[in-house]
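Today's session is about reading a structure prediction critically. Students often jump straight to the picture, but the first step is always the sequence itself: look for stretches that repeat, for charged clusters, for runs of hydrophobic residues. Only then move on to the predicted structure, which in these notes is written as discrete structure tokens rather than atom positions. Here is the chain we will use throughout the hour.
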Amino acid sequence: MKNPHRNLFRVRILSAALAVAFAAVPTLGQQRLIVIGGGERPAEAMKRFVEWAGGESARILVVTWASGEPGASFKALKDSIIQYKPVSIEASPDRPLDADSRKRFIAQIEAATGVFFTGGDQNRIMDVLKDDELLRIIRQRYAAGVVMSGTSAGAAVMSDPMMTGDADLKKLDGTKVGVRAGLGLIADLIFDQHFLVRQRHNRLFGLMMVRPGMLGIGIDEDMAVMIADNRKLEVVGPTHVMFVDTKKVRGGMAVYFLKAGEAFDLRKRKQIKK
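Below is the predicted structure for this chain, in token form.
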């Protein structure tokens, strides 16, 4: 005669194992993005990055392709999040990828619950992602609920189009602003970084003039925006984030400045209460 208690025990063990497995994976379909303007990474943003990625079950992949010193970039990022105790923090293979390192990167990103792009030159990232399959996998992982984040060049690359860094900051001429394809994790947004410190207003204003309908987000150094479900944006950091909307004002622009603790609805394009 079969022992019913043995079957019940097996069911409980299986249920516990599944609970542990799913706890390490962000909720499917809940896209979450944290974009940092360079400089110091706000502690609140880094803490939220790990929390959204699964807390102590988070598996973090640091993509260092933008950096000229990938080892140093990885160490700096690791030092800023290790206190939040993710279960693992790995560096991507260095660029350029060969067949073996490409295979390794695919395995890493498919296992990761959070992906962070470091600073440097955003063009280096997109040079690697001329590989359409890798670009598609990153976008698919974000859509599935893997948290994405980046600072400086890693912020710029989140857009599509992405600013390359080429521009004449003394002129209000969007045709002179260099752009190319980026990750495009959220449609109709363009991120600019180091914004107030490097006086990049003309660059963003000019680009918005030739990209009507898009929303420009200028993120200052030491600042971050945390975006849930591609819609609700929260601001953290000591200065301001600027929003430039060319959709609401015919022939002009609506400009908003938000500080820490304030929120913005990307769909309705207006400031909201948290």
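Discussion point for the tutorial: The CA atoms of residues 189 and 209 lie 14 Å apart.
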